[in-house]
Amino acid sequence: MKETIYTSQSPLSTPRVFLQAVRADLGVVYRIGWQLFVRNLKVQVRQSLLGYAWLVLPPLVTGLVWVLLGHSRVLNVASSDVPYPAFVLAGVFLWQGFVEALNCPLQQLSGAKATLAKVRVPHEAYVAAGAAVVVFNSLLRLGVLLGLMLWFGVPLTGTLALVPLGLAALLGLGLALGWLLALLGLLYADVAQGLPVALNLWFLITPVVYSPPAAFAKWLNLNPVTPLLTTTRHWLLAGPAAPAPGFGLVAGLSGILFLLTWLTYRLAQPHLIARL
Amino acid sequence: MTDAAAVVTVRNLSKKFCTQLRTSLWYGLRDIAAEAWPGAGPAPGLRRAEFWSLQDLSFELRRGEALAIIGANGAGKSTLLKLLNGLIKPDAGSIHLRGRVGALIELGAGLDPVLTGRENIFMRAALLGVGRTQVLPLLPAIIEFTGLGAAIEMPVQFYSSGMVARLAYAVAAHLHPDVLLVDEVLAVGDIDFQRKCIHHMMGYLAAGGSLILVSHQPHHMQAVCQRGLVLEKGRLAFEGTTTEALDYYFSHQAGPGSPDGLPERTTPTLSEAHPVVFENLTLSGPGAVIQSGDDVLVTITYQALRPVPSVVWGFFIYTCDGSTCITAAYPPEPTMLAPGRHQLSCRLRGLPLTAGDYLVKSAISDFESRQSIALWGWEDAPSRLHVEDEPSVTKNIHKMLQQLVTVDVEWN
């Protein structure tokens, strides 16, 4: 029979047991995460008249706006070989994915506070369910984008196969940072208040709607989102296959940060519940 | 040493909380940081604005056993259940659990209002760690147990709290945990459902399950639990059979002399507003203590402003929790209250009560209308009747059966 021991000791005093518990919970996280993901989709549909149309409507409307802008030649920024609307749309859709990933842990965990305080459940399940929604939405946006690329006459090349990798790195960075912020945000409301402000500033220093001018490229590259977003956009829009400098480093660090945040959150979980 | 048969072993368990929100958040950050340094445990003493929600609590629960946790609001019952459920971690001491723990702490938690009852069964089971494939074969039994009928296909937001309780209990009950933690969940269900739950709990215990029940309803605890713990301000105040624990709780928790938590007796001053007042009610037996079978003299002392014709006075014997009137007596003929301070008395022959604590209330009423003129023990503390008995097998059986009265029987 399984024996569970609760003491005041830090789980890190028995690291093997701690990691085993994390691993043992993975199955539960998958099961609950999947159920929550399906539930979120169902709830979204049942409480609206348009139902599943809401899943594709927002990116479709954004896309159409840019098509119209491109068509009327309002925007005539001679940036590169790619039509500007396609360039911006790719950037905006990727940035949206990152922002959603960043927001999702705090949103999911705050929304489930009442349950988390009363039911013993690995909190990762909520983060996983949120992440699944982010991936789902990103893939839908990608589908819309591919359609618009054909419209703009952007060639579909082999580098498209690398896009999932770039997207994974971008979402991974967003989730890792978002989870760390959620840990603080569950305690202090300042995080939820400050996040939109910070994201607005971050948008401006990220080359989402512009190509970085050479003079500032060095500085903009210090922004960890830059190499991930630029590289993934290149892969999408038939650009160079070689990743932008710093892509590998940021992607690797994002992975490590994600794992560390996960373990830190596990350690913090009982202290957070006591204050929910 | 830990008992081999114990499924729950709690040793010197302590948990502290902070009374100030901002300070609590800061301590939270510090405690999280301390977790990252192996060997650095939580601060052993109390920090500023902290208090012990539980302190130095030890007990064991064996297979097939049910334990009632009794205590006033804020005594630490819910903290204990949260610790046992692994939601929060101890600040000192340890908890050893064998097997899977199922908890019914807050019934509404984890149910989605938009999903139907049926969909929520899967959702809730997943939250309790059981997957869809394992729930499917149990589904008919769960739905049957809820007794919700066609309502199972209705969104949960249209359920009453009793219906939510039925759904949540049915799911948790059918997943067969080794230890079931139940926190005040039966209160919202109707009588039929309460009976069903109690019946289920008995069956679960007989099948080797173990149960910890927090409730404010003595008859639930007595029906299900063999043992009881009384918590007072986070400390273990009493441990014994459920009946003993409830006795202890009702006689100590609200303070001596006011077992109902009613204010201490204050005799109102004789006035036009109170033309008749009770001054005292005493019970006395032939010896120093009252025993089962004794002849007991019940005496009331009253003061009256003026003569009051055609009244009756009576006494009422209640269980020590004040919830059940065991017996009451009125004289068949009216009497008259004389002005001034006087006494009225009657003799209760062969007290039929078993050993234990009881409450005695009294009333003086108008004979015709039965409208009360003066009361003793209704709005303030009643008199306490302590019935002694020599320790014997019979006394133990009375306790076990929660028997209150004995009757004279002629056996043929």
From TrEMBL, chain A:
Residues 34-231 form the ABC-2 type transporter transmembrane domain. GO terms for biological process: lipopolysaccharide transport. It is a multi-pass membrane protein. It comes from the Bacteria. The keyword Transmembrane helix applies. GO terms for cellular component: plasma membrane. Keywords: Cell membrane, Membrane, Transmembrane, Transmembrane helix, Transport. The keyword Repeat does not apply. The chain crosses the membrane at residues 49-69, 84-104, 125-153, 165-189, 201-222, 242-265. One of its GO terms (molecular function) is ABC-type transporter activity. It is found in: Cell inner membrane. Belongs to the ABC-2 integral membrane protein family. PANTHER family: INNER MEMBRANE TRANSPORT PERMEASE (PTHR30413), TRANSPORT PERMEASE PROTEIN (PTHR30413:SF8). This is ABC transporter permease. It comes from Hymenobacter gummosus.
